[in-house]
Structures are given as C-alpha cells and as structure tokens.
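Internal ticket - ligand job 367, zinc ion:
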Amino acid sequence: MKTSRAVVFEGTGRPFRCETVEIPALHEGEVLVRNEYTTLCRSDLNTFSGKRTEKTPTILGHEVVGRIEELGAGAPSSDCRGTALRVGDRITWAIYAADPSSPLARRGIPQKAPDLFKYGHEQITPTSHLHGGLAGHCLLRRHTPILRLDEGIPLPVAALINCSVATVAGSLRLAGDVRDRNVLVAGAGMLGVIACAMSRCAGANRVIALDIDAERLETARTFGADLPIQTGPGRPSPAAQLADELPDEPVIVALDYSGVPDTMEALIAALGIGGVLVLVGATYPQRPLSLSAEQMVRRLHTIKGLHNYNQTDFVAAVEFIETQHRRFPFEQLVYDRFSLNQVDEAFDYGLKSGAHRVGIRMTDPVP
Ligand SMILES: [Zn+2]
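stdout (structure tokens):
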C-alpha cells in the first residue's frame, strides 16, 4: 500500500497535524496527482484565522499544481483542450468536480451544481481523503476539469491558475468586451493585480487601480495599471479623483475584489452610463449595500456577482498564463520559502506579512 502525508486543519487556534495517509485504490475515473506546489489563497487564510468556517478536519489549499502519478480505469485520456494526458505530466485542475450534465452545469455554472466537490474545502471522512493542496498527493474525482501545463511556467506561478487567475478570467467574462474601455479595478491584492494585467492584455484603454495601500498600487502599475487611485481618510472620493484625472472618459467596467461595502458603493458612484460592475470580493458576511434604483435605471447600470468560475474561465486562465507569464512579474507576488513541514509558519507569515501569496513547496528542504 502506497502512503502519502497530509497536513490536517482541525480548527482555528489549533496547530496543524501531520498525518500519514494510505493512498486507496483508484475509483472509476480518478487521477492520482503528486502535488508539487500550493499557494495559500486568501480564503485559506480566512479559514485559518476564523473569519470563515469550514467543516473539519480538512486539508486546506486549492491553488495547487502537480504531476500525474497514476491514471485510474476510465480516467480521462485527454484534458479540456484535447491534449493527451500521461503519467508524469504537470497539470492544473479546477477547484471543483461537478457532473457536467446537471442543469446548473449546463447553464455554465458548474461551481454551484448539486453534487459539487470542492478541493481544499472538503471534510476528511473514512471514504474521502487527500482532497487538498497541503498534502503529498491529491485524488482527483471524475468530472474534474484538468489541463496539462507547459513545463516552462514556474511552479509558484502555475499554482495561482486554478483559483486567482481563473476567477479573474470569470469576472472579465461577465464584464464583457473591455477593448478601448476604461476599467476600474478595486483591491490591488492578488486578484486585482491579475485583473489589471488581464484587462491590459484584453485591450483596455485606461486600467485604473484603486486601493488604500500605496505599495500595492505600485505593484498594480507593474501589472499594467496606468492610473492609481488611493483611497483612505482625508482623500477625495474615488469618483472625485476620477473626475479630476479623466474628466471626459467614463469608467465603463468596474471590478471589485476588495469586498468592502464602502468601496463597492464608490464604484457604483464612479461608473459611467451603460457601465457594468462585477462583484467578486464580497465572500464573507457584511452590511448590505446602499444603492439608488433610480440612478441605476437612469444610468443603465448592470451589476453582476461572481463566485468561483467555470471551465471556460479555467481554460482562459491557463491560456493567459501560458502566453503572458513572462510579460508580468508574477513570481515576485509569491513568497517562496516554505515547505510542507512549515505550514504553521507559512500561515502566520501569510496573515502578518501582507504578501500577495505565500507558497509551499512539497519538496523538502526548499531549494
Ligand atoms: Zn482561492
């Protein structure tokens, strides 16, 4: 019997527990992956700190990349783009497994299908284990979208694809065509800076980054933002700053990754006629937004929400990283110093440092 090791999360305030796990025989359609690299997403940090809850015990980590170690009977012979899958291939996989024939999946929303299985978010049970990134292996279920990756993509960058990059791809899909339009990106964390880069590559006119932190705005600039708007006490409202900077050019697309109600309301105030606002960051309980239906009608505004992403977005994310990973300094966003034996330290660092991402290599020691 082959074994793996898993770093188990048992609840806020408790240290991670390292355990040896027997790798079961693969079920129909399953793929066994040897994890190579995991980045800690903001939702992992929020679960660790108690800002959001997850059923425990669990294995956190869903921004993960690895190599196929075994293909079970009936496992897919090719990936979502039709590329053959073989043992040894480096792959990324969607955060979810969901039956593609369910009504929601057929409407393009597999991430809400009734049989949804979400990597890095599932409880460990006697029949379900090795489903997160903070382990030596991950067992991929049937109906998990898989994509083979170009070996030239650095591991810390490849790990970002299946949460951050794919979610941003989903928000741009909902925003529609950004070519020659001004795009306002709120929250210059990981999703925000990727959104700046993706909007720039999609032909946006001005890419405006909005954040409270000057250093983060500087980072956004290296990812294609060309107008920083700093918010905070004593500063003019974003709408007033935009009216100063762009008196004749309205913002047509606004993307919120901040999840802050005041910021989302400021985006509505800054949105031009016919504008679209996509809300992504508000993934935790908060006060309701205040908005004027009259203004929304008269200004022809559209507001959409996005949680996770679908297979189209996942493919778009891989294609974006394959073609653009050398154009923007993605590697600088990942603090790459921890191994699977140092998960407690990595979470502490992630919470205290303000790093865009903290990475964990499965090899030990970290080279
Ligand atoms: Zn995530």
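Auto-summary: The longest helix spans residues 161-175. The chain has two domains: 3-154+325-361, 168-305.
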